[in-house]
Amino acid sequence: MNCSLNEFYKAVGVTKQGTHKMLNNYIKQLEEITLLKPLLYDIRKDHPTLSCRAMYHLINPETMGRDKFEEICKQLGLKIEMSRSKHITTDSRGVIRFDNLLVGFKPNDINQVFSSDITYYQIGESFYYITFVIDCFSRRVLGHSVSKRLSTEQTTIPALKMAIKNRGNMLPRGVIFHSDGGGQYYSKTFLSLTQEYGFKNSMCEFSYENGMVERLNGVVKNNYLKHRKIESFCQLMKEVDRTVELYNNERPHKALNYIPPKTFEKKLLNLSTNNADDDGVMRCKI
Predict the structure, then answer these.
(1) SS3 205
(2) Distances in Å between the alpha carbon of 59 and those of 19, 54, 181?
(3) Cα diameter, the chain
(4) 3-class DSSP state of 51
(5) What CATH number is given for 113-274 in this structure?
(6) What is the pTM of this model?
(7) Where are the domains of the chain?
(8) Beta bridge partners of 178
(9) 37, 29, 26, 56: which is closest to 183 by C-alpha?
């Protein structure tokens, strides 16, 4: 028997608005699950015996209760009684995954490869999130963000916008943007930004394939932040800003002949200028 949608809603005892609200809530929950996956793996790596219930109270997700959260942890293999693989990966089944464009490729200049990752920082019972974008040749932190939520709008987008601004909004087309498979890196809003500036999206499967920015996470948290008295979100933002300035301007880097990233980039610029013809055309590529 044919019937209109309004007749169907009336027959099943729900309203059209109620159905739409239910669908929107379901979609929002799926989005949060996708965003939480990399964070959950990071927490489990740092706290191998922390229960899923304890993680729930630390993270305090917006769209699900405790039982649903624990079921998600179980599906991801994060129950403490279950064995875990040696390499912690981002579960990307059913989502976009870009090819790893860094296989067999090593940058020989700035503005060829940017790499990004999201890590967490705990203050008391609260979790906050730090996102970095670095230039893989100079090791300079070009962009960063500190946020209370894992949403794309609070993590990857402000960090990448800062990186673009720090390059004077004059990036060449085709810069590789490399990351893990976290949902923030394939959301529509983020891909719209990378497309606008001509980035080539690249993703790794294992964390060690994004090792440069993973090491940066450890340096920032273990060599700087943990030695400071940080008791609030505002203090964390200030200390991350301060740390990035120290890292870029003062911290010697072994791979850069023990000079800081910004100094290294200035030397590159001077060398490029000295090797240019009178008309400003480069004679060689650094």
Answers:
(1) coil
(2) 29, 9, 20
(3) 82
(4) coil
(5) 3.30.420.10
(6) 0.71
(7) 5-75, 113-274
(8) 115, 202
(9) 37
